[in-house]
Amino acid sequence: MNAFIEVNNYCELKCRFCVADLGYKYPSTNISMELIDEIVDKYQNDKIKAAFITGGEPLLHSAINDIIRKFATNGYYTYITTNGQLFSNEKFAVEFLYSGIHRISIPVYGCCASIYDKMTGVEGSFNALKIGLDNIFYIKRKYAPHIKIELRLLMAKFNIGNNEDVVEWIHENYPDVDYMSILGLQLSSRTNNYEHMIEISMTEAAPYLHSCLKKIREYGMKCIITGIPLCVLGEEFSDFYNTKSISKTDQVQLFPHLSIQPHLKKLDDCLYREESSKQKSIDICQQCRYQATCEGVQERYIKKYGFNDLKAIV
Ligand code: SF4
Q1: What average pLDDT is seen over the chain?
Q2: Segment 155-181 mean pLDDT
Q3: HEC assignment per residue over the chain
Q4: CATH hierarchy code of domain 2-305
Q5: Can you give the residue ranges of every domain in the chain?
Q6: Which ligand 1 atom lies nearest to the CA of residue 285?
Q7: Which terminus of the chain has fewer CB atoms gathered within 10 Å of its CB, N or C?
Q8: How far is Cα 163 from Cα 140, in angstroms, rounded to an integer?
Q9: Measured in angstroms, how far is the CA atom of residue 311 from the centroid of ligand 1?
């Protein structure tokens, strides 16, 4: 069983594009260790198991290392998405990298404080990110080369023109990054509030993404693209959709999965999700060569922009 777990619903940053809306509906909550134990016990005999851990900001959960350790020692592939701020504490970074984590994904919204801090809404956050990245890359190089680090680019109006510089900055400082990744813009009630600085159509974003991907290719970095279909980016980038560039152990599928949120108390309350809510156009996608493998586009994006960005590749 794969499990997608929001271990908490609060964060020290106030990112303008954050999709973790849960915190608006419930008071600050942490997932209980009892629920984690119940998940692990129930799926003990499954051969393939992955725990996708997120939040809120998951590193702020006081038992995060125990949670990761519990999954890892029970045969789960453990993958966390974090803002990485707490890695600026060296002791914390060391302990976390020894928890049994397999892959860490950290978004890099900019390569200078004037962009990054504006996106996170917190002064000093770029500085903390830089120290945090320095720490975890140092530990990985010296003691934990098996841990994969993925650095993620954000597709938002305010920072998209800076992404090529971000790739250069990453190559200069962390040339041994395992994966770059680009995630299509996820719309949420928060992005609505900052529409002027966040929301951008995929067609508008495409030229910026092209220059980034060319740079990523020039540097020989690996890149995973999700939520942006090939018909928007163009077939010349089809190699980035090829899972062969991802190591076999890292090729875990998110769907189907159990969706677990911090306010839930029992496993029976968790939702089993067969597939993502992404959508495709019946008229356009049915004629497309990639329709069998393409995941389509976020439902909320389609509600706002329609299918105007899509063009069948015949
Ligand atoms: S299947 Fe649809 S969304 Fe996917 S690449 Fe083809 S036209 Fe685009």
Answers
A1: 92
A2: 95
A3: CEEEEECECCCCCCCCCCCCCHHHHCCCCECCHHHHHHHHHHCCCCCCCEEEEECCCHHHCCCHHHHHHHHHHCCCEEEEECCCHHHHCHHHHHHHHCCCCCEEEEECCCCCHHHHHHHHCCCCHHHHHHHHHHHHHHHHHHHCCCCEEEEEEECCCCCHHHHHHHHHHHHHHCCCCCEEEEECCCCCHHHHHCHHHHCCCHHHHHHHHHHHHHHHHHCCCCEEEECCCHHHHCHHHHHHHCHHHCCHHHCCCCCCEEEECCCCCCHHHCEEECCCCCECCHHHHCCCCCCCCCCCECHHHHHHHCCCCCCCCC
A4: 3.20.20.70
A5: 2-305
A6: 2
A7: C
A8: 25
A9: 7
Report which ligand 1 atom has the smallest distance to the Cα of 295: 4
Q: 225-244, pLDDT tens digit by residue?
A: 988 999 999 999 999 988 88
284 CA to centre of ligand 1 in angstroms = 7
For residue 163, the model assigns a pLDDT of: 96
Q: Does the pLDDT value for residue 25 go beyond 90? A: no
Residue nearest to atom 1 of ligand 1 (CA): 291
Kindly list the protein residues whose Cβ atom lies closer than 6 A to any atom of ligand 1.
229-231, 280, 284-285, 288, 290-291, 294, 296, 310, 312-313
Confidence of residue 28 (pLDDT cuts 50, 70, 90): confident
pLDDT, tens digit, 9 for 90 and up, residues 201-222: 999 999 999 999 999 999 999 9
